[in-house]
Amino acid sequence: MQDVLIRTIGRTGRITLNRPSALNAITYDMCLAIEAAFEAWRDDPGVVQIVLDAAGDRAFCAGGDIAELYETGTQGNFAYGQKFWADEYRLNAKIFLYPKPVVSFLQGFTMGGGVGIGCHGSHRIVGESSQIAMPECGIGLVPDVGGSLMLALAPGRLGEYLGTTAARMSAGDAILAGFADIYIPQEKWSHVIRQLEEGGTPDLLNVAAETPPEGTLAAHLEYIDQHFAGERLGDILTTLRKDDSDFAQQSLKQISRNSPLSMACTIEMIHRLRGPSLTIAKALDLEYRFTYRAMEHGDFLEGIRAAIIDKDRAPKWQFSDQNVPAAAVSKMLMPLGNDALKLEGTEMEALNVGFIGLGNMGAPMAANLAKAGCVVRGFDTAGTSAEGVQMVASATEAATGADVVLTMLPNGAILRSVAAEILPAMKPGALLLDCSTVDVESARDVAAQAEASKLLFVDAPVSGGIGGAAGGTLTFMAGGTTAAFTKARPLFDIMGQKAVHCGDAGAGQAAKICNNMILGATMIATCEAFALADKLGLDRQKMFDVVSTSSGYSWTMNAYCPAPGVGPQSPADNDYTPGFAAELMLKDLGLSQQAAEAVDADTPMGALAHALYAKFVEDEDGMGKDFSAMLPRFSARGRTS
Ligand code: NAD
Fold first, then answer.
1. Which of 2, 20, 27, 44 is most buried, taking the most CB atoms under 10 A from its CB?
2. Closest atom of ligand 1 to CA, residue 437
3. Host domain of residue 432
4. In what order do the strands lie in the sheet with 4-9?
């Protein structure tokens, strides 16, 4: 017996899920077969609509067939699951964006993977037995297959409620939440399907439609909004625990079964997705960041073990419910760089980007934008280039006609001169997004000039170094109006993992200057400690092993270790080729001292770090070396030399 029946009847493409004994759970092969049918019918004039249904009374489709994922995952083969999810999500996007009507009949359970097949079409029919849910948090996943989009679009805080509790929706509930469109009593379904097969259009569905029996959600919407509005999972739990109503206690009971990490990520995902820039591609991309890591770093394998394999229903989740660190959530939802989900036909509308300054940071950032589908024209006075970027002859040429002009330049004076050149050439309403690290005053002056030219401006210096630039994991600290920040957001999403709107123009630079004052001082402290350790006869690797997991740990030690051959790859392993050049660190420390002077702040450590880097770059051989080359400098010195 075939698991999925695919045929055309008249001018209707017909797909019937046909594994009733397994509640029509969708396998990889079924996914691929359905996708092939959707593809074949897209441009076939003989097919005007698609009708999806499923065999048996109990389920349209109770989810994805996860046994195989468990088997491969426990053998350390994560690639199988990653490919399964990527291919499944491609199908979900295809159904969502399909140019012809897709009618689905959703009896019984429609859950997880079933929602991805059944709830993205144009006409989603529910009946009296329908029970729709996104129960993924119960097995250590997050609502996926495009479900996060529906949760983000659901009224009020219903999305957070449905995603974390995995509550089941009846027909009326599903229509309220946006998972279904039309209620038709199930006794009419076979007749309606026959009418469609015989040439009827989906309009006939409205004729057969009836008012659904009342669901339970409508009466609880106020409670849901009150309890599920928290910023984090912990906030939601706190308000629920303070309420002894049946609804609150029932919600807590449902939540207590699910993976805290998954629920915390679900909340974060819905918050990130909700808003005007939501697309199916964006939702699937975010879901895939989680599922890509779910086996290795999430609770997925443990969730399946407890629910399906050992059936002990006692999963040992990584975190307790109130105790999911924000860093763990960020780690699961970080962009995947080259491994990101690729969906044909769903690329974001191609943004025209002018990119000025393709140095150590700018080149990989520009390449990531090009890879994500932006049309990027670049210019650099040094004649550098970047993958996928069309190089042009001047900054003005790069800026002309661009929706966004991104600058990644050495300092404020250069930013000012480039801005003076390009602002008159930029099209009205375009955004100048400066990601360089410059002084606050330059950022504010350029912002004022941009505003006078009816242009938007954001100062958004970055943290994360060349590794972050290449991997698309930068953090942006942004200053500017909300409108300007919103326009910059899609670019932040491509190039980074996080963007914080710090305030008005200049606020991003203020945050960056403070961050880098800490960085400069910490690098010096790390380098002098290594030089001292050498003289004390302490092995550098041992020193790393201790400090990187003790109270002396820092980004400079753990992620950018200045000792060659110790810790992760860093410029020290490449003969201190920058990375982040010592002269740029000197510049940033200078900016922090300039700012401290202007506002009368006492910054002795920053001042000393500035003086040391000035000596290193100007009088010693630090120029052109990475800022971590302070280590050989200290190694070569004694207390008085
Ligand atoms: P870089 O020197 O490698 O790149 C700057 C590029 O700008 C160079 O290729 C240069 O030729 C080009 N340029 C200079 N003047 C120009 C002009 N008038 N028109 C066009 N191009 C011009 O420096 P980088 O490391 O890429 O850093 C860029 C900015 O990012 C700096 O402000 C730096 O402080 C900041 N930053 C760097 C790092 C890092 O790790 N490298 C980290 C965070 C922030």
1. 27
2. 32
3. 348-505
4. 4-9, 12-17, 49-54, 102-106, 123-126, 182-183
